[in-house]
């Protein structure tokens, strides 16, 4: 769906540059954002509110003894899966990796009980596991499997459940969860190889793939720069938490009705499209075609054989944008363009996190950090 969206917008924009009808691609972009987000927000606000956000805090609470109603229900899984798909298609500053962890926990909890409360079915199996202790262990394994599938890191999944999730652990559980994470990664690898038309080629380790880095060497003199970047990143993280806390308090006091939550999500989706289109329209950042491996090169007002570099960042999913910022050759982006993108995306991420939609925060954080690193690297050139 994202491919259809951005290819349609590219073709319409290229056509309207000639025909002087740029309002049409803008309205089309707003519609492509608003309609999927509207569907996802309606599902969360009216059908299963617990499916909002990434679900990771709720899973942590559940694993540490806090009763979280409906957190591992099948209905929650369905709303979460459909909702995060709509959020990504809608162009919000979100990722799908966080909800995958919650989804893995729900699947594990459902399998361990051999029944579904949402549909009122009891399959009369796995009676041995129908106790809180066993169910909690399965949820730990499911969360680990979600991490392993999202990032292609089975050991990372085990460490996530061990360090961030469960408070109760034993040695045998470590090996069981590691085996489950390995199976999760292998299964996703097989499915992705078939999806990309190369069945059996097990080179697709996870949904989030940053690509291959050919040259990762650095000099001693660069270490102070890295330290300074980390310090600024920490300050920006504190600012993000402060702003999001104030925004959350405002939402609790003023946007507690379901229709208001849906309306806010729709407004954010429309503003995201407006900011992206405005940056593409008013920032002149033309580069020779062929130096950037973008799938949808947008010419707009650039000359023949050129494309809009800032348009290449917006006309793709956030995961692809992170990969582009990592691998685009030096000189692919203007310093001012990336700096403006970094500032806008930082505040968009802050505004988006906490909406009544299924969403993750991993990818927006990575994309904001990648833009910040690109700003520093470009400035040092």
How would you characterize the overall build of this protein?
This protein is mainly α and 381 residues long. The protein is built from 14 helices and four strands. The protein has helices at residues 2-19, 23-47, 56-63, 74-89, 97-113, 132-151, 154-165, 171-195, 223-254, 258-282, 309-314, 318-327, 335-352, 362-380; strands at residues 115-116, 121-122, 286-288, 306-308. A two-stranded antiparallel sheet has the order 1-2. The chain has a two-stranded antiparallel ribbon with strand order 3-4. A hairpin with a 4-residue loop joins strand 1 (115-116) and strand 2. Helix 2 runs antiparallel to helix 4 (74-89). The protein is globular, with a radius of gyration of 22 Å. The two termini are 38 Å apart. The mean pLDDT is 84.
Relative strand content: under 5%
Shape designation: globular
Neighbour order of strands in the largest sheet: 1-2
The residue ranges in which pLDDT falls below 50 over 5 or more consecutive positions are: none
- Give the overall average pLDDT: 84
Compute the CA-based radius of gyration: 22 Å
Order of helices and strands: HHHHHEEHHHHHEEHHHH
Overall helicity: 55-70%
Number of strands: 4
Give the termini distance in whole angstroms. 38 Å
Q: Tell me about the largest β-sheet.
A: 2 strands, antiparallel
């Amino acid at each position: 769906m994202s491919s259809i969206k951005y290819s349609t917008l590219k073709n319409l924009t290229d056509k309207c540059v000639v025909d002087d009808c740029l309002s049409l691609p803008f309205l089309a972009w707003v519609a492509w954002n608003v309609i999927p987000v509207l569907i996802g927000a309606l599902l969360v606000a009216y059908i299963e509110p617990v499916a909002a956000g990434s679900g990771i805090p709720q899973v942590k609470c559940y694993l540490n003894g806090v009763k979280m109603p409906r957190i591992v229900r099948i209905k929650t899984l369905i709303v979460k899966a459909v909702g995060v798909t709509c959020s990504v298609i809608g162009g919000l500053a979100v990722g799908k990796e966080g909800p995958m962890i919650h989804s893995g926990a729900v699947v594990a909890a459902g399998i361990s009980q051999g029944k579904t409360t949402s549909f009122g079915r009891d399959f009369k199996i796995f009676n041995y596991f129908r106790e809180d202790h066993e169910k909690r262990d399965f949820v730990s394994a499911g969360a680990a499997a979600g991490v392993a599938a999202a990032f292609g890191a089975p050991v990372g999944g085990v460490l996530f459940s061990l360090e961030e999730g469960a408070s109760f652990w034993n040695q045998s559980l470590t090996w069981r969860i590691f085996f489950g994470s390995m199976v999760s990664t292998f299964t996703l690898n097989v499915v992705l190889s078939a999806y990309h038309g190369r069945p059996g080629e097990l080179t697709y380790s996870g949904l989030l793939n940053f690509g291959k880095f050919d040259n990762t060497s650095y000099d001693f003199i660069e270490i102070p720069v890295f330290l300074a970047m980390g310090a600024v990143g920490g300050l920006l993280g504190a600012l993000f938490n402060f702003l999001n806390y104030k925004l959350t308090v405002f939402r609790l006091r003023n946007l507690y009705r379901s229709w208001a939550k849906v309306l806010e999500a729709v407004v954010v989706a429309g503003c995201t499209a407006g900011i992206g289109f405005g940056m593409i329209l008013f920032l002149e950042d033309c580069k020779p075609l062929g130096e950037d491996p973008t799938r949808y090169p947008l010419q707009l007002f650039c000359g023949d054989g050129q494309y809009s570099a800032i348009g290449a960042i917006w006309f793709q999913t956030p995961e692809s944008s992170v990969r582009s910022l990592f691998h685009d050759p030096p000189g692919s982006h203007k310093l001012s363009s990336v700096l403006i993108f970094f500032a806008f995306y930082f505040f968009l991420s802050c505004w988006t996190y906490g909406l009544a939609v299924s969403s993750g925060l991993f990818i927006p954080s990575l994309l904001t950090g990648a833009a910040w690193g690109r700003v520093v690297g470009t400035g040092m050139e």
